[in-house]
């Protein structure tokens, strides 16, 4: 048994040939299995391997997805997201979405041009967000997608491990809000 465990650690492959993937557990069963694996290494005298398994789990940082309005992030949403990420120890994944259908026959010939222009505009607008994250020591990743906003949020959520919350621009711009009314920034969690 000890020989198998050493082979798993040193070879970084499981007996069936699959690559070993150490990620933050998403549920109780995964968490239990990872902790049992670390305990098995420790009981077998492989304390460094047990530490590596546990460090890999602990080092997976939690993330918040910040969804801008088309190519922009409002100052209010950026400030809220920065404060949220700083207080909670989260990384920021910023998302801009070009709300065009991917398979539209009318738009198809122009998609690459529109996408390039949109991506360029998004990158310019995300510079201030990235700079403020760097100043505060918050890891920052910027994504640009095309399609329905809900679909793009779901795609990024499924592709990026550790996203726990979504902060998005309100449907109503701040200029439309009546005097005395509060402008509410939506924050929500998505289930896997």
TrEMBL record:
<protein>
    <submittedName>
        <fullName>Universal stress protein</fullName>
    </submittedName>
</protein>
<dbReference type="InterPro" id="IPR014729">
    <property type="entry name" value="Rossmann-like_a/b/a_fold"/>
</dbReference>
